[in-house]
Amino acid sequence: MRSPRDFLKPLCVGAPDPITEVPFPPSRMIHFFDASNEKMRAKLPDIAAKADIVLGNLEDAVPVDRKVAAREGLVTVGKEIDLGGTQLWTRINALDSPWCIDDLTTLVGEIGDKLDVIMVPKVEGPWDIHYIDRLLAQLEAKAGVKKPILVHAILETAQGVAHVDEIAAASPRMQGMSFGPADLAASRRMKTTRVGGGHPGYLSMSDPTLDADGQIDASVARVTAQQDPWHYSIARMVDACTTNGCLPFYGPFGDIKDVAACEAQFRAAFLLGCVGAWSLHPVQIDIAKKVFSPPVDEVLFAKKVLEAIPDGKGVHMIDGKMQDDATWKQCKVMVDLATMLSEKDPELKAAYGF
Ligand SMILES: CC(C)(COP(=O)(O)OP(=O)(O)OC[C@H]1O[C@@H](n2cnc3c(N)ncnc32)[C@H](O)[C@@H]1OP(=O)(O)O)[C@@H](O)C(=O)NCCC(=O)NCCSC(=O)C[C@H](O)C(=O)O
Ligand SMILES: [Mg+2]
Questions:
Q1: Which string of b and e fits 316-336 if b means at least 16 CB within 10 Å?
Q2: Which residues make up the binding site for Mg(2+) (predicted)?
Q3: What distance in Å separates the CA atoms of residue 316 and residue 309, rounded to the nearest whole number?
Q4: Coil, strand or helix: which one is 41?
């Protein structure tokens, strides 16, 4: 294990100094686009005007014969498209793939100063982050990159979940993590073909009604309720990220047409502490924006609490609800997020009354 004192020294002579605090600009959605697809690239200026983060995907979903075109397409995006204040990320190919090394050398060499974050798929343990960390430092030094490129791990293998805390703590470059339900399901041999969301087979059932002989009365219907198969892992990811000062995100929701279920999945993640989710299709940008911006009525109430209890101490009754030091902190989370988002979004600013 590295000495904590070394954490703030660059891992290569000439690489930029590591950051001490992960920046937290609006991050409600990471919008995926296939950079080898010219049509999608052409839409980027419009998409960037709506999205907080755009991500050029090089990994899964990009066919093998378009891997190089996707990498080159992303270089073109970095060099030629003005994204305004919207962050530019990439998802590189996995560390055990033959494309990963060229993804990193090309992207850092060509557009290292334009890339905010590199998303690394299928991270299994801190060793994967250590590899990327050192290599990025060498490439940044060689290319003269001025600020460190941050790293975002996808939590999508059983091993990754088992090592989630060590992954989050592996480097000061760790910007955050996303939850990858498709690969995780496959890795665990879960029997689902869905990408995120619930499953009608994953449910709990009320007790049976017994007849006079104490036998189960099969004629009386029993109530069932779908449970959330992802709750445990997402909650672990949120704790690991928060403990280590980085940001947790929900990942993809694959049923593009089922906007209601997408919204429900995103909202469950938001309530558990995630700051955003992936959008795979333009329609999911608006869903994420709605869900990951705190609700207006809650923000107004939270503002009222903060105003009524300036020192955040003691016990108070506000609108019939008990407020104390802990609820004050909950309200502060809500108001801080609303304040940060308002700086980007004048409509939200007006709605929140800032
Ligand atoms: C999912 C899609 C393949 C759907 O595409 P398509 O059938 O073309 O949808 P539409 O006809 O509704 O598209 C309408 C227009 O919008 C453009 N479009 C579609 N998606 C995007 C996008 N992401 N960014 C920009 N523009 C987009 C279409 O080109 C149409 O344009 P026009 O013809 O001019 O009207 C497609 O949405 C897509 O490929 N999405 C990204 C998929 C992706 O990145 N998948 C990988 C991430 S999920 C994953 O990897 C799993 C995870 O790792 C895990 O393990 O859980
Ligand atoms: Mg995956």
A1: eeeeeeebeeebbeebeebbe
A2: 156, 183
A3: 8
A4: helix
Residue 54 Cβ inside 6 Å of ligand 1? The answer reads: no
- What spacing in Å lies between the alpha carbon of 10 and ligand 1's midpoint? 38
- Measure the CA–CA gap between 111 and 92, rounded to whole angstroms: 14
Kindly state if the Cβ of 94 falls inside 6 Å of ligand 1: no
Question: What is the CA(112)–ligand 2 centre distance, in A?
Answer: 24
DSSP 8: G
Long-range contacts of 350-353 (CB under 8 A, 24+ apart): 351/296, 352/296, 352/299, 352/300, 352/303, 353/300, 353/303
Print burial letters for 92-110: b (CB count within 10 Å at least 16), e (below 16). bbbbebebbeebbebbbeb
**How far apart (Å, rounded) are the C-alpha atoms in residues 177 and 164?**
9
- Residue 291 pLDDT greater than 90, yes or no: yes
Annotated binding site for Mg(2+): 156, 183
Contacting residues for 279 by C-beta, under 8 A, at least 6 apart: 29, 30, 31, 32, 51, 285, 287, 288
Report CA torsion sign: 214, 219, 220, 221: positive
Note the pLDDT of residue 177. 98
DSSP 8-state code for residue 5? G
Please report which ligand is nearest the Cα atom of 254: 1
Model confidence over 312-345: pLDDT tens digits?
A: 999 999 999 999 999 999 999 999 999 999 999 9
With 0.90 as the threshold, say if the pTM is over it.
yes
What value does the mean pLDDT of the chain take?
Answer: 97
Query: Which residues contact residue 349 at a Cβ distance below 8 angstroms, ignoring those fewer than 6 apart?
Result: 342, 343
Q: What is the pLDDT of residues 176-186, one digit of tens each?
A: 999 999 999 99
Nearest CA to ligand 1 atom 10: 281
Please report the domains of the chain, with CATH numbers, ordered by start residue. 29-292 (3.20.20.60), 294-353 (no CATH)
